[in-house]
Each structure stands twice: as C-alpha cells, then as structure tokens.
C-alpha cells in the first residue's frame, strides 16, 4: 500500500501541496513535505485536484505513518457485515472489513478464515 492507496491504482487524498512549476503541458512539480522526500515530486494533472477555498469546510487530514520505503501497514478497525458466497461445490464465508484511514465506502469483503488467522481480536 502506497500513499494510502487501497488496491491497484486507487487514488487517495494525501494532502494539500503548493505547485512550484509547470513542467510540461500536463505535469506539475509540487512542494512536498520532508516526510515525503523519497517521492518523485512531478505529478500528472489527472492525479491532482483543484482546491476551492471554502471557510466553512474544515479538512480532516491524518498524516500517514509510512516507512522509508513508503509502505505502511493497513490495519482493520472492525467487521461491518458477514455473508456466505455460494459457489457450485463449496461455500466461502466472507466478512466486510472497515480499514484504518478509509471510510465506509472503501470497506472491503475479505475471506473470514484469512481475517481470523491474521486479526483474531476482531472476532
């Protein structure tokens, strides 16, 4: 998991950063904090979102606990739901897991036996 992404190429809000310069037609160089010094600071415009100042809007920014290789451990907070997936010859029990640093809309369905093995304290 990198930059708080869950899954392959899933964009995630990392923070507000100042644009230093326009590198090319669709790429920009950003002023990143020292905690992200190992990250290449040039981004494609599709990865950026324009900030519209709104005094009533308060951003809830949580700094990510990343290691030197920019990976961090995803930890589950709670189990939201259970269901059984019925295949032709077997059944697979699943649980819906809420992960740290993610909202309810990003909760994922995981195999119950895997979650019991790794995170038995949730059951």
From TrEMBL:
Pfam families: SH3_Tf2-1 (PF24626). Residues 3-52 form the Tf2-1-like SH3-like domain. It comes from the Eukaryota. Coiled coil: none annotated. SUPFAM superfamilies: Chromo domain-like. InterPro entries: Chromo-like_dom_sf (IPR016197), SH3_Tf2-1 (IPR056924). PANTHER family: CHROMO DOMAIN-CONTAINING PROTEIN. This is Chromo domain-containing protein. It comes from Cephalotus follicularis (Albany pitcher plant). The lineage of its organism: Eukaryota, Viridiplantae, Streptophyta, Embryophyta, Tracheophyta.
